[in-house]
Design brief:
The complex is a heterodimer of chains A (260) and B (274).
Chain A lengths: L4 E14 L2 E14 L3 E5 L6 H9 L6 E6 L11 E4 L11 H5 L1 H5 L5 H13 L15 H13 L5 E5 L7 H18 L2 E5 L3 H7 L2 E5 L6 E6 L9 H4 L5 H18 L1
Parallel strand pairs in A: 3-7, 3-8, 5-6, 6-7
Antiparallel strand pairs in A: 1-2, 1-4, 8-9
Helix pairs in contact in A: 5-6, 7-9
Chain B lengths: L13 H36 L5 H4 L2 H13 L2 H33 L1 H16 L6 H8 L3 H25 L3 H9 L4 H39 L4 H10 L3 H33 L2
Classes of the chains: A alpha/beta (260), B mainly alpha (274).
């Protein structure tokens, strides 16, 4: 484990309580995330990946364990977190522009500087001519870009992606995940991506964390090093090491699925 | 066999044919509606003149029109019409405000909504006309009593529907607001309220009809003015022309209100592009 961490999770435990009993979801989850790193979290379905992300985002508090923060600038305040959900959730009653400034509006940060940044992003991501359009007039990929701008507008230091492409059909998904991840890479932000798609995890991330079935623990961590000329996720799928990584992850996950 | 491409400008395109057929269809529906009404009126008039039905009990279109003309000339109808319209609009607006505020509070506090739920269900199922005598004792006879009666008929169902509309909001959209750093107030203003507008609109369409029912019940029991009063008065003195005229006026009012709300709905839907 590195000492140069940005986020350090130690012994995170979480359980859901109902009248019928207690369901342990997370059991002693510990890992570090370095600043600027792109981490993918995979695991069998229902293992509590989304719960883990909600805890990191501060939407849920862990029942046990600590989250330590060490910002690159040395400060200890919790980093501003941007969260992308499975669906774009753009509001049909707002124009694209009104949608992407939603976060700024809520946080009362509609400053000239921020709006200029949003306009820059809209131009960079090719959404300039769609700013007054309604979400339903955009393609799936364009909507994801708009959702990304909405997240980036608040300038988060840590981006949490909760299967942000799973609602798209396979072909769109391939190109959109490549597209969005290229854009995120360019910002140099720290990213935690949750996915159940192993190829997506390998092609996008610097490191893959495998969770066990419920109650989840960290089963293994797999650093990804692909020998590639360019870093595009589509090319990554053709890298010579790709299938070896895939088989390794598949083994780990499959063992978990069959025990269940 | 029709040619797939049509370059002759004199001949209509398929789109034009479709548009024509669409207009013709709507035209036909409108004509049939009007025809049905005219036929009914003619039949009614003939039956009453030839003595098939007793015009003393069943009146006739010409007698109703004559009465309307007389009441227009001495302006008496306008006072009655005006007061009923005013009372209905007042109770409708108050129902809207009360249910909006109450449903918002219920949404804010799950605990409050759990506590109040059985009471709301009970009050909603209660036949509100049973309350009218109580209102008369408490508030006397007059406009206030009648507005309260109008409110009582619509308000409980309206609160329940508004609250249900707030509750059906997509929980992921709510999470989105929290991830953007929003508070519960932001959740309400940015997501819950805008996303429930279509349901709120269909609820207020029902409310305007219910408010009218309540106002007429109130006027039956506690008024010296208004269409409901004229109906009761007419039946007591056996002036059935008067009763039927007022029932027809009520039909007109109900239709007018419905159309009005529909226009507001169209406007809002267009503005919000829902």
């Amino acid at each position: 484990m590195t000492t140069n961490y940005m986020l350090r999770l130690r012994n995170i435990c979480y359980a859901y309580h109902t009248l019928y009993g207690e369901t342990n979801v997370l059991d002693n989850i510990s890992f570090d995330v370095t600043a600027g790193e792109f981490v993918a979290v995979v695991g069998p379905s229902g293992c509590g990946k989304s719960t883990l992300l909600s805890i990191i985002a501060g939407l849920l508090s862990p029942e046990d364990g600590t989250i330590a923060v060490n910002n690159p600038d040395g400060s200890l305040h919790y980093p501003r977190v941007g969260y992308m959900l499975q669906h774009d959730h753009l509001f049909e009653w707002r124009s694209i522009y009104k949608n992407v400034i939603l976060g700024l509006e809520i946080s009362h940060m509609l400053t000239e500087e921020r709006l200029a940044y949003v306009n820059q992003l809209l131009a960079d991501y090719g959404l300039e001519q769609f700013r007054d359009k309604r979400p339903s007039e955009l393609s799936g990929g364009m909507k994801q870009r708009a959702a990304l701008i909405r997240t980036l507008a608040l300038d988060p230091q840590l981006l949490l992606l909760d299967e942000p492409f799973s609602a798209l059909d396979y072909q769109t998904r391939l190109s959109v995940s490549a597209d969005i991840c290229r854009l995120i890479r360019r910002t140099g932000k720290t990213v935690i991506l949750i996915t159940h798609d192993l190829s997506e995890a390998i092609s996008l991330a610097d490191r893959v964390i495998v969770l066990s079935r419920r109650p989840s623990t960290v089963k293994c961590e797999l650093p990804i090093h692909l020998s590639l000329a360019d870093n595009s996720p589509l090319a990554a799928r053709n890298a010579p090491e790709f299938s070896a990584y895939f088989n390794k992850l598949w083994e780990e996950i499959r063992n978990e699925e069959t025990i269940q | 066999m029709k040619k797939p491409f049509n370059n002759d400008p004199a001949e209509p395109t398929r789109q034009e044919l479709f548009m024509r057929q669409h207009h013709r269809h709507h035209h036909q529906i409108a004509v049939m509606r009007l025809l049905l009404l005219v036929l009914f009126l003619i039949l009614w008039e003939i039956c009453s003149r030839t003595g098939v039905i007793d015009s003393f009990f069943f009146s006739s279109p010409s007698m109703v029109l004559e009465l309307l003309w007389d009441m227009c000339r001495d302006y008496s109808i306008f006072g009655h019409l005006g007061i009923t319209l005013f009372e209905t609009l007042a109770s409708f607006l108050l129902v809207f405000l009360i249910s909006l505020v109450t449903a918002t509070l219920l949404w804010y506090s799950t605990r409050l909504s759990e506590i109040l739920e059985p009471y709301l269900v009970m009050l909603n199922s209660l036949p509100k006309s049973a309350l009218a005598p109580l209102f008369i004792v408490w508030l006397g006879t007059g406009t206030t009593t009648i507005i309260v009666a109008g409110i009582s008929v619509a308000v409980f169902g309206s609160i329940i529907s508004f609250y249900a509309a707030f509750r059906q909001c997509d929980p992921e959209k709510i999470t989105l607001i929290y991830t953007l750093g929003g508070s519960k107030k932001d959740v309400f203003c940015k997501v819950v309220l805008p996303s429930s507008i279509p349901l709120l609109l269909s609820t207020i369409k029902v409310n305007i009809g219910l408010a009218l029912v309540g106002v007429i019940i109130g006027e039956f029991l506690a008024a010296r003015k208004g269409l409901g009063y004229l109906i009761i008065y007419g039946s007591q003195v056996f002036r059935l022309n008067l009763v039927i005229l007022n029932i027809l006026l009520l039909c007109g009012i109900a239709m007018g209100f419905y159309k009005g709300i529909q226009m507001i709905e169209h406007y809002i839907r267009k503005e919000m592009q829902l």
